[in-house]
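Saturday, quiet lab. Running sequence design on the structure tokens for the scaffold JK sent over.
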């Protein structure tokens, strides 16, 4: 009789248990996705570090989906042992890239399908990096960011010690508002004067900028 009035408990209802398990699984999935997002950005830019014991004469980086290496990122420069070189892409460019370096002795080394959105640097060679050289011999290249709301028609960058602006770095191109232009400079001087000319012929300058210790120079 007592059993009829007060049935023995069967424990948690099956439906409640399943809901609880599903909720816990959902929380775990959210945490996993959040961790993945934190570990990887959508910025594929990175630094190449030379610890090979040799000088790197050429650097090529192209999306793994491309069938050509494209341009040499070093241009007229070289990358001595113990130094690094920035590879700067626009935000949102492809993350999976192939990388090739050519050493001074003509030998080449490649890294395929590197997810550069998930790393800060790619190291070539396993030797110990040499001590960093004085600031005056570091890499002065930088990205010029146009935050002015106007189109930039010309960009000039020359060492502060010189008394002329030199060539227009844009050449036949222009730099629309919100865009970025990579200014590649030879290894050597770090202090640069930078001048931009807008589409209304007005100009703006930044003097004595230590471009060896920054990545972006924004106008205005």
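Result came back. Writing it out in full:
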């Amino acid at each position: 009789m007592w059993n009829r009035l007060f049935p023995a408990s069967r424990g948690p209802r099956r439906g409640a248990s399943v809901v609880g398990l599903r909720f816990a699984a959902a929380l775990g999935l959210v945490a996993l996705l959040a961790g993945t997002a934190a570990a990887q950005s959508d910025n594929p830019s990175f630094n190449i570090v030379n610890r090979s014991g040799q000088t790197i004469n050429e650097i090529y980086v192209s999306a793994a989906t491309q069938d050509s290496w494209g341009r040499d990122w070093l241009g007229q420069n070289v990358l001595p042992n113990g130094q690094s070189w920035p590879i700067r892409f626009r935000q949102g460019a492809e993350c999976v890239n192939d990388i090739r370096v050519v050493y001074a002795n003509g030998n080449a080394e490649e890294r395929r399908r590197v997810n550069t959105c998930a790393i800060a640097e790619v190291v070539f060679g396993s030797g110990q990096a040499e001590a960093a050289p004085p600031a005056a011999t570091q890499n002065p290249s930088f990205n010029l960011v146009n935050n002015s709301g106007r189109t930039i028609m010309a960009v000039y960058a020359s060492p502060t010690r010189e008394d002329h602006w030199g060539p227009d770095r844009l050449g036949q191109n222009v730099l629309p508002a919100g865009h970025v232009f990579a200014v590649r400079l030879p290894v050597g001087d770090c202090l640069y004067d930078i001048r931009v000319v807008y589409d209304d012929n007005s100009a703006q300058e930044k003097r004595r900028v230590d471009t060896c210790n920054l990545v972006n120079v924004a106008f205005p």
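Notes for JK: The radius of gyration is 27 Å. The chain has two domains: 46-124, 135-219. Ask whether to fix the surface positions before the next round.
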